[in-house]
Batch of 4 targets.
Target 1
Amino acid sequence: MSMRKLDTLFELFAEEDVKCVLLNACYSEAQAEVIHKHIPYVIGMGRSISDKAAIEFSIAFYGAIGAGRDIEFAFKLARAQLIDSDEQDIPQLLKHRA
């Protein structure tokens, strides 16, 4: 999908109740930047991430969200799952300033 289409798509959701988008794919930081113009929290991957790490990150992130934790806590917890690998710094959280 082109960046222009991505921008237009998420512009439609800007007024909705969408608070966070997780792009759990390699090199998705550029797409995250585009989406972040419209959505308060966006997580993208700064470089290539292994399937194992991406899955571990997602499980921890969504588990924390499901348990009622806030997005920033969930993100930190999910990154902590990758602490023993060289992939901990790959997920990047973009957030609007309060």
Target 2
Amino acid sequence: MDEQIKQSVLTELKQILSDRVSIDETVLQEHGTGFSYHQSSPPDFVVFPHTTEEIASIVNICANHQIAIIPFGAGTSVEGHILAVQGGVCIDLKEMNKVLQLDLEDMCASIQAGITRNQLDALLEGTGFFFPVGPGANATIGGMAATRASGTNAVRYGTMKDNVLSLTVVLPGGQIIKTASKAKKSSSGYNLTQLFIGSEGTLGIISELTIKLHPYPELSQAAVCSFPSIESAIHTAMKTIQQGIAVARIEFLDAITMRAINQYSHTDYREEPTLFLEFNGSAQLVKEQVQRVEHLAQEFGAQGFVWEMDEASRKKLWRIRTDAAPAIAALSPGAQMMSTDVCVPISQLAKCIVETQAEIEKTGLLAAILGHVGDGNFHLGIPIHRDDKNTLEKAKGINERLVKRALAMDGTCSGEHGIGIGKLSYMSLEHGQALEVMRAIKHAIDPKNIMNPGKLLPE
């Protein structure tokens, strides 16, 4: 950025935000890295707004100078979504973390976008309601909407696209719009809420959300069971879904992941392909679900069923699952995690995972497979060291072949991580001419291309 423009922008930002503008090198570097294995790319400024109106003023400054805007939540994305590839202004929403309205009668809440899921959980404690979408990291709810996030509850409660009623968005020209109302359904106009969910900050900045809340079930019961092979574990998950059993969570973890968990969390689970399951509902319904799934699992050779009945034990189990990523990284001290995901039709899931594991074994890389197999989504976690170019190239090769395998099975290049810069090269392959429609929407809303440029849509 030209130094004269830079000084002008800095002066204008400080007039609005005073000391909530940073050009500190450490802060800039933190905001250009995230959880990604991609090369760091810091912005020129980081700003910390408190209101939607302040965001609009910041956007107007950037639009006038035609400089890039990068929305920032908690920086937990893994595909380089928050990298400032053209420099510019990073808008960090962490100080916009208030609940604006808690409406238990209508089972919804209006919140600022910077509230994290852990903060929201704490604020909802004791209300009898919860927000079901929970990716592994403590992401912001706005960031989760921007990346169309998912999590372990998706098989029962859906993803972000199913749990957001309305958004307040600041457009690239500084206009503020509300995309919908609290109504549970509408046939009025284009579905703008869904347009911005998953747009990764390329169309506007989500500043507020109205989200659905769900009542806690009468009873929850969790279980862990191991299997003699990946196929037997995945087929159990497939049959569970195909038979319409309303399981709340069904997670697959391979033998490497289980070894990592045992070392990291000091547990003693069998180090074999494993399913983590949870059942919610009335006491009678849960009992019936448990019996049916246990019978199915035993047909596929399951053993070592461990049932977790009380809340503390269940929370510990899912905390262990949440810690799977750092556990895998810890298998290779000093490594960063290259994390990738795909999603395929559930009928293709076992084939896709088995072929992927066979390819990993051929390369000799340490790589773990885990995922939300109830909806066909799974992840690879590959510990890498930046200076080990050979391992990095092998890992990228596995990722590319995994994506192409998933697309050949009528799947998608990402079930929940999103595109960022990491999956850009596969967008044409997956979407074909539909990509031109996406580009037309982008150009219509953001003709100056200042909103998170270089992400989601290949040039």
Target 3
Amino acid sequence: MEQALQGLKVVEFGEYIAAPYCGKLLADMGADVVKVERPPQGDVSRQHGPFPGDQPHPERSGLFLFLNTNKRGITLDPATPTGRDLFARLLRDADVLIDGYRPAQMDAWGLSYDRLEKVNPRLVMTSITPYGHTGPYRDYLGHDINSAAGGGVSAGNGDPDREPLAFGLTQCDFQGGLNASGATTAALIAREATGAGQHVDISIAEVLATLHVGVNLPTYIYRGIVATRSGRRGSVGRYPKALLPCKDGYFSLSAIQLGEWIRFVELMGTPEWSKNPRYRDRRAMAEEYPDEVDALVSQWTRQYTKEQMFQMGQDKHIPCAPVRTADETLAEPHLRERGFFVKGVTPDGQTFEMPGPTARFSVTPWSLRRQAPRLGEHNEEVFCGALGLEREDMVALRHAGVI
């Protein structure tokens, strides 16, 4: 095998970020992913930028081009009887179906797991929605911000005197897709033992509640404290866990272990104030008077740039990181040295940079085999090749709005 997931057949039927990102992660590791877009406009992410020259175009969306590398693309509308039949035929030999639509909508299209497992008992169906396929919110509309609120992330994100926030850059949807790819792989491993597929039900809100909010449960259980929004620092725990100002911006400092804090104080030159017993109780420093301590620490940090702070922290084994702009991230030497960014190409030949592999396998490596598909680019290849339709059938289906 040249790649880890080579030979795996995946059908992806979902829009925007979560489902396509799951499909991308599988495709980038070698899976044959057929992306199904509903005609005539296709995936909604085609309407989202960034675009070259800030000129919107459905074939030049940076978001779409990044999320759909290494996939073949077709158009198909399962709202029609013919479309449902073609979709079912597409799934007969598939290993995985990734879907990102609400349960009621999938049921209306005849694409529920109960029906599809009769078409293909070995099918692993991975559904990625804000609230999952069970429970009282299963059919609610939801977006990244709703998942953030439902998963509890927004309860601790933002300034205390302002509105709660989601993570930046739709990270909730990306994390939903990432977890779905891992769960899908686990279901495929289980299939090797049982011979049967299964329905993998991913609730993005539950992903966030588990990964980001669950860590705070011991604080509530043992201390009765509910973490709240506290701006650029953690509201509970030990000092310091915050974004602090420096000469040219901010850096993140999370020296919560005793040894880390001692090394940071030594790095500052052990200032006289640090010998005061008031600044030895780091839980009180974090929870009772953090602004006071920040002001003292910042007198020193403002003398240095964020890159200097980062390097000094690395040298002294102190967990910290610079808060970089997008341009600074693109130019970051470590990412450049590791080849993290790769060249993408728009259908009309314009190049751009995008993130590359999320992990590097030494024997079955990640590779960029093809750019994201144009809308319906592989219709003939899939429908006439894999499904055996004639070109005349394709014309009729196109006129009927099925493909």
Target 4
Amino acid sequence: MVCLLTPDYHVSFNNRLFREKFGDDNGRHCYDYIFGRKVPCEFCEAYNVLKTGKPHHWECKSPDGLSIIDIYDFPFTDTDGSPLILEMDIDITERKKIEDALRESEEKYRDLFENARDAIITTNVEAKITGVNKLAEEYGFKKEQLLGKSIFDFIVEEHKERALKDFKAAISGKPVRGEMDVITPRGIFTAEYIDNPIKRGGEIIGIQAVLRDITERRKTQQKVLDYQVQLKSLASELTLAEERERRRIATELHDRIGQALAISKIKLDRLRHSMRTGEQARSLEEVCNVLGQAIAETRSLTFDLSSPILHELGLEAAINSWLVEQIEVKHHIAVEFNDGGKTKPLDDDVRVLLFRNVRELLINVVKHACADAVKVCIHRIGSRVQVTVQDDGVGFEPAEALAKAVTKGKYGLFSIKERLEQIGGHLEIESEPGHGCKVTMTAPLKKREITDGEN
């Protein structure tokens, strides 16, 4: 908007925008037009450009208070030489709103930046630090120690390569998160960081790195890992202690009760043979039969408690013997066994645990699978042993079956999985209705013999 003013502030000329805004009645005073005032504005008198000979600039509100006007006054001379004031009025209402919003946004950002619970560092594209918030000072830094320095100057040597890779990714426009060890005046701490690109006008001008000190969290996690190692060690000791007790009881059954029953049967058999006929001979025969059954059950109980074959001949021989005797002979299910041919040195607790797990899985096959055949394979794969138990039975949905087991308090598969994990092993179940079931267990070999066995 443009208008010409006489020395006493009458409007002698105005353009279309001025008329649309304030009306087209020439001859009125400018302060009447613009401000709705009947007297000159005090700043007009103080800064009259005709008196000072210098341009003047100020801002004011329109009479309705809805607009902000940016006013520029310049000394001007009419064609006849008369002095005039050239006034340019610019409506800056929207610009002011944008500036106010921007200022408010900057204040909020500055407040968030300075009072964030995490350390925030901004850099340019050359990784030079351009800004830090107050939290950086808690690590012993002063702002002037950081500004202009490379962010990589404060990263431990072994993490610099990865940090550089992440920085390049962030500069290319991809936010990156990770962890690294940071060097500060108060020592080295572990930081979890997020690198976000900073854009201006669509162009990336640097990154904003948000760092959180997770040193204590890392220490806590390490303590948890240490406790887990202790727990596995205790679980291993418990397994071995339990197995020792089982072997002791099995030995007692075999050496005392089993032998006593065997001797008793031998003597009764002799006595029975000396009595060829009669009621007493028939009674002795019945007693001998009962003793024979008790001896067989004692032997079976001895093997169930602790298989002598497992300790004397190893895992493969124990599983194969149990497969043939208990699954094929007793339950009439065809069995196939494959041990892979390679040596598989195992710690005592691992050997005992795998044997128990295989036996439990085979009992499940007998009880639930309605299978005609079962296959057990033991293979060495690198530094681990892999045991698979596969049947051709009715199958099931693993997730559904496990959920029902928890609901009913039957934790067979869960117990197997848990026991394996305690020794660093893993359990995998593959099954579906009508297509049988395959259970795969893996466990570590004996560490001190792995290298020798692989050569």
